[in-house]
Structure formats: C-alpha cells, structure tokens
Automatic annotation (TrEMBL):
PANTHER family: GLUTAMATE--CYSTEINE LIGASE. GO terms for biological process: glutathione biosynthetic process. It catalyses: L-cysteine + L-glutamate + ATP = gamma-L-glutamyl-L-cysteine + ADP + phosphate + H(+). GO terms for cellular component: cytosol. Residues 10-383 form the Glutamate--cysteine ligase domain. It comes from Massilia eurypsychrophila. The keyword rRNA-binding does not apply. Its EC number is 6.3.2.2. This is Glutamate--cysteine ligase. The lineage of its organism: Bacteria, Pseudomonadati, Pseudomonadota, Betaproteobacteria, Burkholderiales. The keyword Ribonucleoprotein does not apply.
Length: 530
C-alpha cells in the first residue's frame, strides 16, 4: 500500500487534476527599517507621500514609525509576487528622499529607547488601538526587539484541491466532515510537519549570525565578540530566531497546540483573557494615558509569536480568532524567514520556489499528532539550528535517535524531490523547482554557501555588522533608484496613496464611542460565535 505522500502525488499528477497546483496563492510581507545615509534609524515620520499606514493595502508600518512593511497582493506564482514586491520597493524609493531601506533582519545602530518612535496611525479609535497595542509591546519586550525585521510568506492551496483529497481519502461519506473542517485540519497538519522540519529552513535561509552590540541593551548573553561593535556566534544561522529575539517570560508557557484548530484557538483565547501579575502591576493606564490594551498574557492574539500561523482574511471589525472560528483556516503564514541581505527585496525567487515545494510536501505528507514531549524536541532542534546550525557534526533529535543535521537534511531533500518534480511538470518552465532544490543541496554539502556563512565572511572582512548592513543598503538603494517604474505603475501607487489618506480621513470623521468604551468592546469580543 503506497504511503499518503505517494498516493496524493499520483492523484495530483493526473492530467485532470494537475492544474490545481497552479491555483494556490502566494503573498509576501517584507519588513524593513528606514535609515539615514549614515545607516542610523530615521527619525522622520512615515512619509505621507507613501499614503496612510492605517489604510494603505500595500505599504504600512509595523512596530516603529521607521519600520516599513510592504505587503504584496496574493498571486498564483511566486515569480509574479516578487515582481509586485520589487515594484513596491521602487515606488518607496521615489518618496524616501535621501533615506534608505535597511538590508538586514537585525536592526541598524539604534538610539536610546526613548528616541525610538512607536508607529502612529492617526486619531481614530482603530488607529489609537493599533498605537496603544504597540505601547504595550514596548513595555513587555522593549523597543529594540520590535525593530527586528523579517519576511512573512503567506501560502494557500485551492479549495478544489482539498475537495479532491477529501473525496479520495476513502472515508465513508456518512463519516466525512465538511470541507471547511477537512481543510482546516489539513492546514493544521501542514503546520505540524512544519514544526518537525522548519529547522531545515533556518539552516538554508538564516542570515543573521551577527548583530550590533547596542541591540542587547545590556542584557546577559553568551555571544562572542567579533569587533568593537559586533557580537556573533561562529556557527549561528539566525540570531533573530534565537532566544535573543521576540521572547519573554509571559509567552514562555504557551505551547503551539498544533493538533487541532480548536486547541489552537482555545489556547490563544485563554491567553488574551488570562491576567499576568507583572502586567497587572503596570496597569493599563499611567497618568491617564493608555500604556497597554490589557494586563493579560497577550493583549491581542497577534502578540503570540510563532514561526507559523493558521490564518483567515478578517472582515471589518472582526478579530483573527473569530475569523478562524467562524470560517476555518484559509492559508498559513510562515514567519521565520530572515531578510536576505544579498537580495534587494529581501528574498529570491529561488527561495520562493523551494518554499513552495517544502510547504506542499508538508501539506501532502502524513502528519501524526504531536505530544508535549515531541513538541519540546522540535523546539530544541530548531533552537540548535539557529544558534549552531553550521557546526560540523551537529546532531538533531529524530524520534529515539540522534542524527546529523546534514544526513537528515539530505533525506528531506530526497523526500521533497518528487514534489518539486510535480510542480515543475505543472509549471512547464524548465525545472525551476528542481533547480532550487539543487541549490539547497549545495548548501547542505557545503555550509560555506549558506547565507549565514556568507554574511559572517563579509562582516569579518569589513569588521562590523553595521558597516556590512549599510554597504548592502547602499547597493540596494542604487539598484532601485537606477530603474524607474513605468508611468502607469507610478500612477497606480499614487492613486493608492491618495485613496488611503482619504479613507483614513473619513474614518477619523466618523462618530464613534469614546476610546475607553472602544477598547472595552474590543477586549470583550474574543469569544467565537456563529
């Protein structure tokens, strides 16, 4: 009897079904700090020429006023997605003056905490809610941590594919769950496999082995000194994803709960409703000003930091958890990718092709439930890889045995190979997924080819992590400024910017409750309903 992966690949390789693989969607969210010509954090406000950070569909801010976030439309092919991301970058550069976009995940040299401006979204209740939420993040995690940037990869498969798999699984019709439940369970199964194997992504694409000394703000650490202003770990792949990143004690007790959508939702609903004593001591207001939305473990569910999330597009006034409860999982968001400092837009199409093959493999392969002990093992494998993934002979835990990262990575590449071949058959453009697999295989064979090793070589040569980041930022700025957008593209972005500003103005003119009442209503809207 063929295993589940083999059966599903054969089904999708049928002439009648192969086109389904072209109907899924890909979207990218790229975060990047605005910096001045010297590579210091920009102190200017979000440029109004870019539009409203509150309402613009493609250009917004994340934590800090200087931390831009570019959001592509969802496309069927990652090549087109990255073309759209490139256009957003080119437009931004026409409106940035002499500022640049920082090229790395770890921040540039940052000023004191008081001088890092939290993102502003205007005077409306929803704008103030977003701003106060970020005030809470500053209290809970510190501002420097919020200036870390990443790449988020949004991925979905078409509903017709889930319909096909549901009909083919041999489940008697009377025992079959509805499509919505099957689709949600299938995405949760994808997430479980992602937990098992995401260490591989950190080895292949981690690009933050070093950081500026000032980032740690005097925190204890076990990093080594590379130069006067730079700390590193010699075999690290991604310090961004290590315990130096977005972590705190309140979240440490939250576990992924990836065995069902119900348990995931229940865990997050509990966290946004459960008081946490240190936050209670701070309160929600100081001198009459809001300083955080609540004193619970999480202010809102998006505060839960995870390497991957189940997602559903939300409707106006709806919370993410409510959308998942009511309509199930629609796509997943991969959140562990570092910005690639060698790529002007922060990610290459080759990386995207591999991610598509990797995520489809995770979706199609068998994915048993994960118990608490196994979850801890997966977390430990991930942690080892981000801190010492290039260490010769590094061992990871698989079941009851210790295996070398290299051997396990080779096995995974072989298991993903038929998935890549199927995508290439459907894609009909010269084996681009197989070529991406070959590029990743070369990194497994030779760790010096990984982005983290290449970054470390450059930082050593130049003598400073900040100097390397500035050099790459200058190269990327020149790249974008040398080639203008077409007039029609410029007009489209200009119109989006103006429409977003008009939309924010309309929101601010619309009567609403007082902010205290608005927050109370928002905080009470965490339960799932029909």
């Amino acid at each position: 009897m063929p295993n589940q992966l083999t059966r599903r690949l054969a089904l999708l390789d049928d002439d009648a079904h192969r086109a389904l693989l072209a109907q899924g969607l890909r979207g990218i969210e790229r975060e990047t700090l605005r910096v001045d010509p010297q590579g210091r954090l920009a102190r200017s406000a979000h440029p109004p020429q870019l539009g409203s950070a509150l309402t613009h569909p493609q250009i917004t801010t994340d934590y800090a006023e200087a931390l831009l976030e570019f959001i592509t439309p969802a496309e069927h092919d990652i090549g087109l997605t990255l073309h759209k991301l490139d256009a957003i970058h080119r437009y931004a550069y026409t409106r940035l003056g002499d500022e640049m976009l920082w090229s790395e995940s770890m921040p540039c040299e940052l000023p004191g905490e008081d001088e890092i401006e939290i993102a502003n979204y205007g005077t409306s209740n929803i704008g103030m809610l977003k701003h106060v939420y970020r005030r809470g993040l500053a209290l809970r995690y510190g501002k420097a941590m919020q200036c870390i940037a990443g790449i988020h990869y949004n991925y979905s498969l078409p509903e017709k594919l889930w319909q096909l798999l549901l009909a083919s699984e041999g489940i008697p019709e009377e025992r079959r769950k509805g499509l919505r439940d099957f689709q949600s369970e299938s995405y949760i199964a994808l997430i479980r496999n992602f937990r098992r194997y995401s260490w591989l992504l950190m080895y292949l694409f981690g690009a933050s082995p070093a950081l500026s000394k000032g980032f740690l703000r005097g925190r204890e650490h076990k990093l080594e000194t590379l130069s006067d202003d730079t700390l590193y770990l010699p075999y690290a792949t991604s310090l961004r994803m290590s315990d130096l990143g977005y972590q705190n004690d309140a979240q440490s007790g939250l576990t992924p709960h990836e065995n069902s959508l119900e348990s995931y939702v229940t865990t997050l609903m509990d966290a946004v409703n459960r008081p946490y004593a240190p936050y209670q001591e701070l309160g929600t207001k100081k001198d009459g000003e809001w300083i955080q939305l609540s004193t619970n473990v999480l202010q809102i569910e998006n505060e839960y930091y995870s390497t991957i999330r189940p997602k559903r597009v939300i409707r106006t006034g709806e919370r993410p958890i409510q959308a998942l409860c009511k309509r199930g999982v629609q796509y997943i968001e991969v959140r562990c990718l570092d910005v690639d400092p060698f790529e002007p837009i922060g990610i290459s199409v080759e990386t995207g092709r591999f991610l598509d093959a990797f995520l489809l493999f995770c979706a199609l392969d068998e994915s048993p439930a994960i118990n608490v002990a196994e979850s801890a093992v997966h977390a430990r494998n991930f942690a080892r890889t981000v801190k010492e993934g290039r260490r010769p002979g590094l061992l990871l835990t698989r079941g009851d045995e210790e295996v070398s990262l290299q051997a396990w990575a080779n096995e995974l590449i072989e298991r993903i190979r038929p998935v890549a071949a199927l995508l290439d058959e459907q894609h009909n453009d010269g084996g681009v997924h197989a070529a991406s697999l070959a590029a990743q295989q070369a990194k497994i064979d030779n760790p010096a080819l990984t982005p983290s090793a290449r970054v470390l070589d450059e930082v050593r040569a130049i003598g400073s992590s900040s100097a390397f980041g500035l050099r790459q930022s200058e190269l990327h700025a020149a790249y974008f400024r040398e080639s203008a957008l077409m007039p029609a593209e410029m007009s489209m972005f200009d119109e989006m910017a103006q429409a977003s500003l008009a939309e924010q103005a309309a929101i601010e003119k619309t009567p609403g409750p007082g902010f205290d009442d608005f927050v109370a209503a928002y905080n009470s809207s965490t339960l799932c309903g029909d």
